[in-house]
Amino acid sequence: MSAFGFADNREYSVSALPSKTIFGMRFSPELGILVDSTHRFRIGVNYLKEFGNSEKFATSLDPVIYYSYEKAAVKFNIGAFPRFGHSDLFPRAVLIDTLQYYRPNIEGMLFNYTKPNFRHSMWIDWYGRQSETVREQFMAGWSGALKSTIWSFRYFGYYFHDANKLEYDPERPLRDNGSLLLTANVDLTEKTALDSLSVAVGWQSSMDRIRSVTDLRFAHGLYTELYLGYRRFFLDNIFYTGSAQLAFMADRFYGFKHYNRTDIGWKAIHSNYVDASLVLSFHHTPHGLDNQQAFLLRYNLEGVYRKR
Fold first, then answer.
1. What is the pTM of this model?
2. Which of 33, 94, 113, 153 has the largest CB neighbor count within 10 A?
3. Which residue range forms the structural domain that includes residue 283?
C-alpha cells in the first residue's frame, strides 16, 4: 500500500510555459500472492483525487495487476505496475516529472539487473492500443549506472513511437522521438563536512522525425549538476546549454538553448516508510526567472504485511 500527496505550484509566466497548480492525492492499495521467494502476483488500484473538483469522486482510477519475478540480481515485471522506483528516477531532462502525477503505472514489461557496482534497467510502456479512434503509441526506456569508488557513469534514455490509427490520418503521420543523457559523476561526500556532495557532467541528446514530412533531426548540449545536502536541507543546481532539445517527453524548459534550475529543499520527514519534502525551485531561461513551490509526501508500506 502506498500514498502520494502533492501540492505543486508553478509560476512560469516569464518563460511563457503553462502556469498551473497541481494539488491532489494518490492512493494505491495492493494485495499480493507470494508463491515462493521468486514468483508473486499483485492486484490493486491506483486512485487519484485532484482537490477542488467536487463533481468527480476520482480524477482517474487505474488498475494495478502484474506478475513479478525476483531472483538474485534479476527482476522482471509484466502487467500494469507502479512507476515509482523505476522511470520516476529519470532526470527531468529526459522524462518530465508530471508522469508521477498523471501516469502512475507502467503498462507493459520491466527488466532490472542489479549488482553492487552495476545496474541496468529496461522497460516498455504501452500508451495506446491501435483502434479506429486510438493511435498506436508506446515508450521504451533504459537506464543504468557503473560505479567505481567515488566515480560513476550513468545513462538514461527513451524512445517514443507515435503511429497512426487503423484509418490513416494524413494530418498526423507517424513520429519517432527520443532522448539520451550520459553523465560522469563524482561523489565527494567523504572529503567534506557535508552529508552529501556530488558533481555530474554529461552530454544530452535528443532526436525527432515526422516520417514523410521531416528528416531525422538531432539536438545536443552540455548538462551539469551540483548536489549538496546537510542534515535535512539540500541544494540541487542543474545547468544546460546547447541546442534546444527536441524530446517532447522531457521537461519543456530544456526546449531553451540555455537553462538553469536551482532547487532549495527541506526534508521534513525521512524514514523507512514516510518521506516528505518542501522544495523551492528557480528556473532561469533567456527570458528571465520563473519560480515553483512544491510539497511532496510519499507513504509506502509495500511488503510490510505478509502472511504465508
1. 0.92
2. 94
3. 78-296
Establish if 10 belongs to a structural domain. no
Whether the Cβ atoms of residue 54 and residue 91 lie closer than 8 Å to each other: no
pLDDT tens per residue across span 59-80? 899 999 999 999 999 999 999 9
* Domain-embedded: residue 301: no
Q: Which residues contact 32 (CB under 8 A, 6 or more apart)?
A: 40, 41, 42, 43
In a domain, 307, yes or no: no
Strand partners, 236: 227, 263
Instruction: Report the number of distinct structural domains present in the chain.
Output: 1
What 3-state class would DSSP assign to 88? helix
In a domain, 137, yes or no: yes
- CA–CA separation, 146 vs 94, rounded Å? 19
* Selection from 289, 225, 276 nearest residue 92 by Cα: 225
Which residue, 170, 105, 167, 112, is CA-closest to 139?
105
Q: Which residues of 119-144 are buried (b: 16+ CB within 10 A; e: fewer)?
A: bbbebbbebeeeeeeebbbbbbbbbb
CA distance linking residue 198 with residue 228, whole number of Å: 7
